Amino acid sequence: MERKIIDFHTHAFPDKIAGKTIELLSQKGGIPAHTDGSVNGLRRVLSEAGIALGVVLPVVTRAEQFESITRFAVQINENGNGLLSFGGIHPDTTDYKKELKFLAEQGFRGIKLHPDYQGVFFDDIRYMRMIEYASELGLIIVTHAGVDIGFPDLVRCTPKRALKVLREVKPEKLVLAHMGGWNLWEEVIDTLAGERVYMDTAYSMGHISEEHFVTLCRAHGTDKILFATDCPWGNPEKDVETFLTMPLTAEEQELILHKNAERLLEL
User: pTM of the predicted model, to two decimals?
Assistant: First the structure.
């Protein structure tokens, strides 16, 4: 039986900067890339892994990048062909409501935040205001969570900070990447398991033990776990193979591989 798979966490860059960006990020994180960083390169690798749809998550690292990154994301969505891009926004923007409303009016399903690349703690009031308004607009919010291997000395989105946002803002469509907090998975189980929040599997398989992965999925609820690879940093083909060896039921696999994403994206 052919499986349907949605990858909820991928990255691509405009052709003119893709190669340089991939080289820089690969050196900073000390990890190889599995695409050339381009949109077409991402499509090819996802297709080879049998992934039907990849969600592209752009990161706005400076407030003035909003317009150019939004144009790039619009182009991805106009072309489609196996990819769906979210928008991005920076917490230092002068008018976050205007930018978020614009993204919603353009038909974006969600936004990506990255506390480490944006230099802001996740429970900062700027993020909480943005998350609250994005939620009012019906947008999905995906954030990097846990350790970022490029910035290992300071974790700006810990499970406790994420819990504070959940308690104070109560977003309905928040996704904590990397199984709730990369390399902080014991704390994730103790602090976040069962909370009303989604987690994606990006760059987790192969780094978290099989036993811990399954335990976390079930403790949190397999109806709130989204399959994701973090391609180009994760290897989609390998991640699919690894996931399918996990001792999960067929129903649990289907939820994680595509049904949860379809519900969240309203596909």
Answer: 0.96
- CA pair distance 17, 71, nearest whole angstrom: 15
Task: Tell me, yes or no, whether 1 lies in a domain.
Answer: no
Q: What is the CATH number of the domain that holds 241?
A: 3.20.20.140
**Per-residue pLDDT in tens (0 to 9) along the chain, 267 residues:** 468 999 999 999 988 988 888 888 888 778 888 999 999 999 999 999 999 999 999 999 999 999 999 999 999 999 989 999 999 999 999 999 999 999 999 999 999 999 999 999 999 999 999 999 999 999 999 999 999 988 888 999 999 999 999 999 999 999 999 999 999 999 999 999 999 999 999 999 889 999 999 999 999 999 999 999 999 999 999 999 999 999 999 999 999 999 999 999 999
User: For the chain, what is the domain count?
Assistant: 1
Write out the DSSP string of 163-216.
HHHHHHH--SSEEETTTTSBT-HHHHHHHTTTSS-EEE-TTTBTTB-HHHHHHH
Owning domain of residue 81: 6-265
